[in-house]
Amino acid sequence: MTLPFLLQELDDKDTWHRLGIEALRQGNHQIVEFSYQKTKNFERLSFLYLITGAPSDIRLQGSLCLTRNFRLTQCLAPQL
Fold first, then answer.
1. For 21-48, what is the HEC assignment?
2. Alpha-carbon distance 10 to 15, whole Å?
3. What is d(CA 32, CA 19) in angstroms, rounded to the nearest whole number?
4. pTM, whole model, 2 decimals?
5. Most buried residue, 23, 46, 67, 72, by CB count within 10 Å?
6. 19-58: per-residue pLDDT in tens?
7. For the chain, how many structural domains are there in total?
8. Tens-place pLDDT, residues 61-76
């Protein structure tokens, strides 16, 4: 298998979701954050930012959600 093929295999929503679950189980919040971003799981991403103490990331995510016209419920705390 070549690297581009492996990257295409990884660029699947289900694969990123499973990777995020495993990274969360192992405590690797950077990989969890990236997998939530790739799957556009903004609710979990907001919660991750909240529990890791990243209010600036929550603000940035809130403004991105508003400019991209996502539902406000997908961004739990855009005003933090």
1. HHHHHHCCHHHHHHHHHHCCCHHHHHHH
2. 6
3. 8
4. 0.68
5. 46
6. 899 999 999 988 898 898 888 888 888 888 888 887 777 6
7. 1
8. 767 666 666 665 555 5
* Domain that includes residue 50, residue range: 11-74
Residue 33 inside a domain? The answer is yes
Q: Is residue 35 part of a domain?
A: yes
Q: Does 3 map to a domain?
A: no
Tell me the C-alpha distance between 65 and 43, whole Å.
11
Do the domain assignments include residue 79?
no
- Residues whose CB is less than 8 angstroms from the CB of residue 80 and which lie 6 or more positions away in sequence, other chains included: 50, 55, 58, 59, 62
Say which residues have a Cβ less than 8 Å from residue 9's Cβ, sequence separation at least 6.
15
Q: How far from chain centre, in Å, is Cα 33?
A: 4
